[in-house]
């Protein structure tokens, strides 16, 4: 099927989402960026901040106009005025911190990747199911209006049979950044690579075969890696991710009847083009507001929780697990284990 126009995104207005009281667990870069987006675009209430020290909790609470500062994560999750906890600590702490919130009876939005491997993702999903709380990965790209246009094009079969998905994500990071630290599960795979792995599994589903090669990076972490995969239907995926250099960071989906090119920094709001074999070339453009668009995922969380759901169909937990399963296979192929990052948690 060809199309004469791009579908309209079905993304609701974030400002209309019902207001929940959020507890923010961790006060780093993404927590700050998330809160600023909430304030600018939603009615969500940043009720409380939890940090490892009271001093940094109070500093963040002042900056975020949050009424309550807690000097421990335990105190945050015990706060009866918090409806939902946003877990924004480094990757290897997502498992203990998500479980802390879930076991306190809180709904959770967990930063990507939700764990070091699929087993950790399953443990969080199982705990949330037992507790009957909402649980979702903060894979915010999938909540952007642009991705709902792509979602509809894929669902409508505009590309014909999908044969190739390609994604790369490379950004140079130098020590002492978190992604160069072995004990924080550094390297590109779990960080930037999550986007490429998500894109591949979202478009192609579970692969039959996965191969990968890797290059060492600073501080003993992995520096970059490339992945080739094939599905049972014969579709192939090609991914690479690096912390050694800034790559074009593009993605595309190629089918027998056309292709979608997602431009540079495809995981952010920005341009996208549909090329059709027998139809017009159609382009999507929008303001390139980068992480200011984090509010779309938060609004989705609020709508689903108020509606009584325990997850979102836009990023089901099973898809989160499937993405980590792909990354487990990449780790197996390249010998990455994240043992130091597991050990420091003392679990
Ligand atoms: N969605 C996105 O676009 C996006 C972008 C960047 C990062 N992320 C994800 O968000 C998570 C956090 O990344 P970030 O860049 O915000 O990191 P960051 O700036 O280093 O902040 C992490 C925060 O976690 C807390 N923390 C707890 N244990 C820690 C430890 N042992 N070492 C360091 N910090 C610790 C700290 O808060 P307190 O001191 O207050 O306790 C710290 O400020 C990562 O998993 C990353 O993948 C997502």
List keywords for this structure.
347 residues, alpha/beta, Rossmann fold, Dihydrodipicolinate Reductase, domain 2, 2 domains, 8-stranded mixed β-sheet, 6-stranded parallel β-sheet, 14 strands, 22% strand, binds NADP nicotinamide-adenine-dinucleotide phosphate
Explain what you see.
The protein has 347 residues and is an alpha/beta fold. It folds into 2 domains: 14-140, NAD(P)-binding Rossmann-like Domain (Rossmann fold); 142-290 and 316-343, Dihydrodipicolinate Reductase, domain 2 (2-Layer Sandwich). It is 32% helix and 22% strand. It contains 10 helices and 14 strands. It has helices at 29-41, 54-64, 73-78, 94-103, 118-131, 145-155, 193-204, 295-306, 317-334, 339-343, and strands at residues 21-25, 45-50, 68-70, 84-87, 107-110, 135-137, 162-170, 209-216, 222-230, 236-242, 251-255, 258-262, 272-276, 282-284. The strands form 2 sheets. The chain has an 8-stranded mixed beta sheet, with helices on one face. It has a 6-stranded parallel beta sheet with strand order 3-2-1-4-5-6, with helices on both faces. The longest helix is centred in the C-terminal third of the chain and has 18 residues, at 317-334. The mean pLDDT is 98. It binds NADP nicotinamide-adenine-dinucleotide phosphate. NADP nicotinamide-adenine-dinucleotide phosphate is lined by residues 26-30, 51-52, 56, 88-91, 93, 111-112, 138, 140, 178, 184, 191, 291.
């Amino acid at each position: 099927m060809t199309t004469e126009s791009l579908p309209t995104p079905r993304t609701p207005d974030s400002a209309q989402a019902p207001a929940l009281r959020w507890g923010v667990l961790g006060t780093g870069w993404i927590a700050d960026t998330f809160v600023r987006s909430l304030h600018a675009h939603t009615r969500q209430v940043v009720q409380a901040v939890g940090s490892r020290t009271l001093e940094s909790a109070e500093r963040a609470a002042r900056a975020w106009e949050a009424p309550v500062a807690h000097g421990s994560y335990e105190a945050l999750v015990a706060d009866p005025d918090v409806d939902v906890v946003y877990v924004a600590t480094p990757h290897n702490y997502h498992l203990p911190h998500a479980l802390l919130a879930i076991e306190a009876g809180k709904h959770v939005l967990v930063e990507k990747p939700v764990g070091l491997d699929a087993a950790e993702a399953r443990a969080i999903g199982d705990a949330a199911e037992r507790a009957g709380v909402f649980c979702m990965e903060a894979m915010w790209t999938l909540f952007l209006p642009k991705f709902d246009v792509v979602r509809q094009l894929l669902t409508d079969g505009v590309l014909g049979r999908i044969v190739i998905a390609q994604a790369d994500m490379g950004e140079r990071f130098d020590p002492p950044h978190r992604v160069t630290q072995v004990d924080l599960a550094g390297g590109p795979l779990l960080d930037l690579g999550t986007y490429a792995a998500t894109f591949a599994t979202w478009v192609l589903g579970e692969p039959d075969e996965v191969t990968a090669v890797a290059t060492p990076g600073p501080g003993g972490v992995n520096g970059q890696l490339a992945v080739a995969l094939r599905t049972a239907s014969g579709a192939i995926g090609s991914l690479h991710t690096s912390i050694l250099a800034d790559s074009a960071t593009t993605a595309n989906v190629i089918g027998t009847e056309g292709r979608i090119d997602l431009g540079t920094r495809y995981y952010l709001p920005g341009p996208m083009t549909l090329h059709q074999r027998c139809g017009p070339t159609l382009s999507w453009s929008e303001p390139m507001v980068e992480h200011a668009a984090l509010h779309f995922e938060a609004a989705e969380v609020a709508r689903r929780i108020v509606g009584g759901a325990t997850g979102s169909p836009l990023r089901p937990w099973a898809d989160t697990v499937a993405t980590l399963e792909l990354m487990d296979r990449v780790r197996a192929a390249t010998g990455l284990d994240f043992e130091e990052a597991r050990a420091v948690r003392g679990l």
